[in-house]
Amino acid sequence: MVGGVDMVSIRVHYKLSMNTKDSALRSCNRRPAVVLGGITLFFIRKYVENQEKKSSSFPPPPEVPGLPVIGNLLQLKEKKPHKTFTKWAEEYGPIYSIRTGSNTMVVLNTNDVAKEAMVTKYSSISARKLSNALKILTCDKSMVAMSDYNEFYKTAKRHLLTSTLGPNAQKRHRIHRDTMINNMCEQFHAHVEMYPSEAVNFRKIFQSELFGLSLKQAIGEDVKSIYVEEFGTTLSKQDIFKILVIDPMEGAIEVDWRDFFPYLKWIPNKSFENKIRQMHFHRQALMKALIEQQMKRITSGKEINCYLDYLLSEANTLTEHQRLMLLWEDIIEASDTVLVTTEWAMYELSKDPERQKRLLLDIQNVCGSNKVTEEKLCQLPYLAAIFHETLRKHSPVPILPLRYVHEDAQLGGYNIPKGTEEINCYLDYLLSEANMLTEQQMLMLLWEAIIEASDTTLVTTEWAMYELSKDPQRQKRLLLEIQNVCGPDKLTEEKLCQLPYLAAIFHETLRKHSPVPIVPLRYVHEDAQLGGYNIPEGTEIAINIYGCNMDRRVWESPDEWKPERFLNAKEDTTELHKTMAFGSGKRACAGALQAMLISCVAIARFVQEFEWRLKEGEEANVDTLGLTTHKLHPLLTIIKPRNEG
Ligand code: HEM
Description:
The structure is a single chain. By secondary structure, the chain is α+β, with helices and mostly antiparallel strands. Helix content is 55%, strand content 11%. It is built from 22 helices and 18 strands. It starts with a helix and ends with a strand. It binds protoporphyrin IX containing FE (HEM). Protoporphyrin IX containing FE binds at residues 118, 144-145, 157, 160, 165, 449, 452-453, 456-457, 460, 510, 515-516, 519-520, 581-583, 587-591, 594-595. It is found in: Membrane.
């Protein structure tokens, strides 16, 4: 369908170009006829495009009825849209559209259609749609998770995976995870010793240690306090956590009514802007102070395996590259190839008066008596043809700088062994290397690594421990599995693959509690079809992971927490990812491995070392809060060390 539209526009464009060329050859006196022809073709083109759209055999998705102007906004008042979306899915089906003010949003509520959007139709639905709050907090998409699919995204994601989240990086950061889990267990033991019959606040211990790990991975140190000049004061770790994690998570769901009525964006909303800008300013000042402190460490010669050191070393190499490349590029392109091409073009035109005249007519036709400007270039096909023909005939760069094949490859059906020189484009290579990050982007990427590591893993582990604490039978089953595999030894990451029940607990927790209930919004940047419906360009897309995980056609008794449902999957590992808790396709969660390693080892070690029981009254505390499904009330449990018999 999209291809069809393209073909039509190419055909019409071709006709239009031909028309321009012909008119250039005719006399200027015939211009009214040319203009009339142009207008007619313009309308024909629009008509054909509209017919293409109308003739789409796909209907629009069902609409949830709303009010004039505001659409469905009033129905979405409570801050848990995933639940309202899931309720609507029962009435309007797995895919429907709603109106949030003047915006149209399509909501996807089943695995099939969500996968179609995230995987099959990715190329039409890869751009992020950000609220005004997120635009400020993400410094206009300067983060991997919130950026569109572009060069910045690819570079930044490569850095994040290479230095921090990819399998090799995770091996290098293993020591931090082991230390973190040991610290947590020690603190639980210390609590029992001091207050044997009092409930422990699970979140307080887990959150602080997890945040410490995220700081170590990002900037190399679990910072306990820092002086920030802009604030004129020293911040504690608690303050740092608030500014870097809690405030932005809250800010991310702040609503600016102008999000829903973009045509009113000229009206100021000062209280909203001040609030979000202040969060941004605080984060900015604090991140700068943290980075400066670490720069002193680096200058003193102490390197640490962390994201900051990696980014700086990359940036340094790139700066040198870039300086060299810019010099080279400026010199070679400005003073050489452009000259070569223009000189050859003028040579050809000077010896060919007919073509020179044709070009002149073309220019006069478009510019009249005015001088040619860059804006007019797109209307001068004959000029473009002269440029390209000169490039073809005189090839200013006859052979591209050499490269060599660094691993065996096939080219044109032949085997090309490693080490063979290949003609390729050096410029592209330099350009990609020069794709350097600015200081602000680096700050944002470091902050991203901190906030993402500090939140969802806590959410998942806290809910898993809640479920296990209220279910002694399943807790016992897990303990037996661990004892069977580890005997009296403490569980380590190497043993995870032998613990299917633990994996089932992890995945069932992700399913029932969907830590990221709605995938960060995307919008459709070219007309697409989803689930048999036509989705026009500009539509916002909300993928309701929570709704998918509560779908009765896929999950039996979806409200129950039943890890055994994942044991039936037996060898089929794809079954484990049926929850789509980490998203799917190219934008699937980059931190899934880290989340799984931390959460699974923590759950297993906590159950190995303690017996867990909910504090009285805690069972009813199932409410959630925020962008992710944070337990509203921190988990309170009574713990008893196992070795006490
Ligand atoms: C249980 C824990 C986690 C869950 C449920 C989760 C879930 C998600 C989801 C649903 C997405 C969006 C996928 C999409 O847009 O299609 C995402 C993206 C992302 N997550 Fe996670 N996440 C978790 C942990 C983490 C951790 C620990 C980190 C880093 C330390 C992390 C880093 C990221 C990044 C960088 C992206 C963007 C990936 C991209 O756009 O290519 N996540 N996550």
